[in-house]
Specification:
Elements lengths: L5 H27 L4 H19 L2 H6 L2 H26 L7 H19 L6 H29 L6 H27 L8 H23 L2 H4 L17 H10 L19 H16 L10 H8 L3 H11 L5 H17 L9 H8 L4 H12 L3 H11 L1
Helix pairs in contact: 1-2, 1-8, 2-4, 4-5, 4-6, 4-7, 5-6, 6-7, 7-8, 12-13, 14-15
Length: 386
């Protein structure tokens, strides 16, 4: 083999390894939780990256006619949108893709097709606008992915998943920005020679640890066991003043989690004490009604580090998401109020705000997800039965 062919062979070998790892990731995601949005978005992104690896190969770009490259380039540019959707789904267990996400992907892919349809060296205002928009796509959606990561990361109670998520998003954003900078430095916007091989090597360094961790993680560590939350018992009363004494004598239990209960461990007096203090704050003092309640503020009230509180709520109580844990108490109180004949005239909005929801929209969505009914339907059904 001549020395001139060695770089091409090395580049092709690297691409083959990365494609194999991406297909492995897609298979793991499809095996563990094929119905979850995060898994579907991850599979689409992995397959899209396989297409991008083929489309960005120097030999492919040099030898294949430009119009024949267009579909693969469209998929490659659309990967930026898929990464944004994947970040949202990965950090928010309640995320559901909507038609607008598909429309955005289609618009970005169409933009790439238009750019490919233009002849090489085409000038004019239209060509400049299309090129500028296409080059802005990775930056825009990398920023959106970072915002999605920041807005939901602290709610995640599963430590291994938190670390993996941060790694995926951080490296994904870094890779997007690095490749954007390389393409901007190229007159034609294409990768060639050393830059193309460096691109594949960077992808390998990102994908290999993710594949290793994904294979080692249990399915329940990465994804929730159930896609639809089970209703929590309506055991809380909305009227704190009237029932304060009763609550002090018999505090309501922490609402059951969506996932299966964790296996019992050896007794830990410190953890038992923390669990009792958490029960007091949530079921008796009803701090879940506070608008600004978060994992940090609750840990501060308990006087413990955040990681200890996350470990308790996840490992002992079985909850994977802090917002879902808190909303369990809020929904239990709202259900009790809606089923109370003495409060049949109380507006639903008043009940939602009293329970700690900040607006009617999130309350309606959470209530429908937990019960399968709207608050009005739930009230009508329960009052009719009574």
């Amino acid at each position: 083999m001549s020395a001139a062919l060695l770089p091409s062979v090395f580049d092709a070998a690297l691409r083959g390894v990365v494609i194999a790892l991406l297909l492995l990731l897609a298979a793991v995601l499809g095996r563990d939780r094929p119905g979850l949005p995060a898994a579907r978005a991850g599979i689409a992104l992995a397959l899209g990256q396989c297409v991008q690896l083929v489309a960005s190969a120097p030999l492919f770009e040099a030898e294949v006619p430009r119009l024949w490259q267009a579909p693969l380039v469209a998929v490659s540019v659309g990967n930026a949108v898929l990464f944004w959707v994947f970040a949202q789904a990965l950090f928010d267990d309640e995320f559901r893709p909507r038609p607008v996400h598909r429309a955005i992907w289609a618009a970005v892919a169409a933009l790439a097709l238009v750019h490919c349809a233009m002849p090489d060296g085409a000038g004019g205002p239209l060509a400049a606008v299309v090129l500028g928009l296409q080059r802005a796509v990775p930056l825009v959606f990398a920023v959106l992915a970072a915002l999605a990561a920041a807005s939901h990361w602290r709610d995640d109670l599963v430590e291994k998943r938190r670390r993996l998520r941060v790694y995926i998003v951080a490296t994904g954003i870094g890779y997007s920005l690095a490749m954007l900078a390389v393409r901007l430095a190229s007159p034609s916007g294409r990768l060639s020679g050393l830059s193309a091989t460096a691109d594949v090597a960077m992808l390998l360094l990102i994908v290999a640890p993710v594949a290793w961790q994904m294979v080692r993680l249990a399915p329940s560590e990465l994804f929730p066991l159930n896609t639809v939350p089970t209703p929590v018992p309506a055991d809380a009363d909305a009227d704190a003043d009237a029932d304060a004494d009763a609550d002090a004598d018999a505090p309501a239990p922490v609402p059951a989690p969506d996932a299966a209960a964790p296996a019992e461990a050896a007794p830990d007096p410190a953890e038992d004490s923390l669990a009792d203090a958490l029960q007091q704050l949530m079921a008796v003092d009803r701090v879940y009604r506070l608008e600004d309640l978060g994992i940090a503020s609750l840990a501060a009230r308990l006087g413990v580090p955040e990681y200890r509180l996350r470990r308790l709520i996840n490992g002992r109580l079985g909850h994977r998401n802090f917002s879902a844990f808190v909303n369990g108490f809020r929904l239990a109180e709202a259900r009790s109020a809606l089923a109370d004949p003495a409060r049949r005239e109380l507006p639903v909005l008043t009940i939602a705000l009293s329970a700690g929801f900040q607006s009617i929209g999130p309350f309606n969505r959470a209530f429908k997800a937990a019960t399968g009914l709207t608050p009005t339907e739930f009230r009508r059904q329960n009052l009719a039965d009574s």
